[in-house]
């Protein structure tokens, strides 16, 4: 969990939050709401997939593609550990533990998919922009050279 907390503390603080603690509280609430939404849609998980992938894309954008996709594995492990800590441990069956692990694995895999797709898109955009800038520089250099040649021939 410290790895996740450290990464969370390094993320840019949205303007609507006065400090990281208030942001962490709101983020935790949003995560709990997302888990509730997934549980409510267990009969139709494909209906929730686009929302989970959107969450991953947003995280890639917020962190400018710098959030490691490996962190999602840590998030999944942390979630699963938390689900094992909830409630009365004596009443928890192996089936319930497996069900929670599957739900969390599904959620995190969909989020991770959106995150990776967005990172790939961002890398493509950066590469395209860099290529355009190089072309523009070459064209500008050629124009300067042509102007210098024309001026020298007068």
From TrEMBL:
GO molecular function: heme binding; metal ion binding; oxygen binding; oxygen carrier activity
Keyword entries, A-Z: Heme, Iron, Metal-binding, Oxygen transport, Transport
Domain Globin residue range list: 2-105
Keyword Metal-binding: yes
InterPro entries tied to this protein: Globin, Globin-like_OT, Globin-like_sf, Globin/Proto, Mb-like_M
Pfam families: Globin (PF00042)
CDD domains hit by this protein: Mb-like
Keyword set includes Heme: yes
PANTHER family named in the record: BLR2807 PROTEIN, GLOBIN DOMAIN-CONTAINING PROTEIN
Similarity remark: Belongs to the globin family.
Protein name: Globin family profile domain-containing protein
């Amino acid at each position: 969990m410290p790895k996740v907390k450290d990464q969370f503390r390094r993320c840019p603080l949205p303007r609507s939050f006065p400090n990281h603690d208030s942001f962490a509280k709101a983020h935790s609430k949003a995560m709990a709401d997302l888990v509730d939404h997934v549980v409510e849609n267990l009969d139709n998980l494909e209906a929730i997939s686009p929302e989970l992938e959107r969450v991953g894309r947003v995280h890639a954008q917020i962190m400018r593609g710098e959030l490691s996709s490996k962190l999602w594995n840590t998030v999944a492990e942390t979630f699963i550990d938390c689900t094992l800590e909830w409630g009365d441990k004596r009443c928890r069956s192996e089936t319930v533990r497996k069900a929670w692990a599957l739900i969390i694995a599904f959620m995190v895999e969909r989020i991770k998919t959106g995150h990776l797709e967005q990172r790939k898109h961002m890398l493509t955009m950066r590469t395209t922009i860099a290529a355009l800038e190089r072309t523009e520089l070459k064209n500008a250099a050629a124009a300067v050279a042509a102007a210098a040649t024309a001026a020298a021939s007068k």
